[in-house]
Amino acid sequence: MAQAVKRLFPDAKLAIGPAIEDGFYYDFDIPKKLTPEDLPRIEDEMNRIISEDLPIERREVRREEAIQLFRNKSERFKVEMLEEIDDERVTIYSQGEFFDLCRGPHLSRTGRVRAFKLLSLAGAYWRGDESREMLQRIYGTAFDSEKELNHYLGAREEALRRDHRKLGVELELFSIRDEIGPGLVIYHPKGAVLRTVIEDFLKKEHAKRGYQLVISPHIMRRDIWATSGHLQMEYPMYFFEIEGQGYGIKPMNCPAHIMIYKSRTRGHRDLPLRFFELGTVYRHERSGVLHGLLRVRGFTQDDAHIFCTMEQSEEEINNCISFAFEIQRIFGFDTFRIALSTRPEHFVGTHEDWEKATETLKKALESNELDYFIDEGEGVFYGPKIDVKLRDALGRWWQGPTIQFDFNLPRRFGMAYVGADNEEHTPVMIHRTVLGSLERYIGILIEHYAGAFPLWLAPVQVVVLPIADRHVTYASEIVGKLRSRGIRAEINQERETTANKIRKAWQMKIPYMIIVGDNEQNSNTLSVRSLSGKDERGLDLKQVIDDLLDEIESKAIRKA
RNA sequence: GCCGGCGUAGCUCAACAGGUAGAGCAGCGCACUUGUAAUGCGCGGGUUGGGGGUUCGAGUCCCUCCGUCGGCUCCA
Fold first, then answer.
1. Which single residue of A149, A227, A302, A465 could bond A115 by disulfide (Cβ 3.0 to 4.6 Å)?
2. Within 10 A of A40 (CB to CB), how many other CB atoms are there?
3. Is the ipTM reported for this complex over the cut 0.85?
């Protein structure tokens, strides 16, 4: 591709162009601004290069020699890269008039490229550094056969169909509107039901495990954010004044939980203390990063802070880990990728604290026999953390739970407990979530299930469809009975054909349709049609209710 | 925030190279009383994201702001 770009745009300067998970990209500095219309042109040129079937040659040269080579072509990015490479020898691949610095390996000839497609254009900073120049990046992908390429492109379309932003509107779950503001979610009735179901479930599960529910205000004095260190870290917050006093909208819930801890003297027998809050926080995210429910400015975390002794911390973290995975499995996720993030460049606290905390997290992961990888320098400023990524039905990875160690806040807030030795000690603090944020998690669920939620989560579980007006009374009775058993049921009494009512229920991904006409009314039975199209007739209402309740209770996962 | 694309009715989209906006779905009304993925007819609906400019004339061209999409950086 780079060769094609160089042929079409001789002024283009090559930056970097690696292979990525499902394709490749290349960054260029081109005076002309590329538009999507340029992609087919570049593809044409690429096809020409493929049909030329140029041999691809690997050559090993001294670093100095390579620098000279690229300097002659005034490829400043390549020169910059070479100047920072430690190896004395580097490899250069060439094909026809084109050559590039690359570790390899490559195909033997350009004619070996089978199926490829350029996908998109994007801006990208040179070396990913915000302060460096913006380059133009071209994304593409390549496969061994047209078939595989088409399969990949099909998967991309499927992902588009499942896009939670699209489904969120179609299924009337939520919206984000200009008038309200970017990154601010309004939940419509159906979305609010979904969220409430998740919240109630979380509250119950936390109570089971010894967490205490707490609630804290959305705004807190500016000073407390100085104590916590958010101010000094220039955390992206919103600030304002009330009667001359500075306030900030909370971007985290920790200070309030710490205040609850500090509301009385704590002894070692009080610990561990586990405070859980569905805490709505606001963060001033930069406009370019907002993305549907996955990245918003206001969101609710299923947040908890555990205060304990150093000795207790390992067990507490173990429990957090098993809690998180248990819940994730119930929601239908069973494949994970776990990252342990270590000390970042900017941090508070001492080196020793960081090491101790990181070790504890490591030990907890290892004792749970979980595979993980180390994300060097990716910790939060206040402590190292474990991040869990979830794999969805389409094989994509999403940010899920996080468990963060914190030696710093307890010290900053002067927290203490009286130990068995009758001396004051500083407790250890653990921040953790099970889902992450409700907004993001709901977004992930929508995409994972393509909107067809398991019964226990479905905003509308059953829709009752009377065939004609004379069946409405009977249908309403059924709805009433379902509702009295806590089943979320609705009636569609539009004067429409049954086929159309079924189509609408199907579009709304309602798990079950109960259809009643003369046959059912006369025999006091029902017909049940499932979302997947299964059709059963002459059923008994009591039995249907029991079956529905069983399925809800079991939180069974259905295939989307 | 940065680079680029886009912004027409609630939704999906149309309107030749500038000549004062159209369709389907949805909504409303009427008819139909219906048996498992769209019944028919009719009606209403837009100061073309906001503001400014060029022009006799702007949805169309230019500037600017806002939003959004794809990335980068950042992140629950």
1. A149
2. 10
3. yes
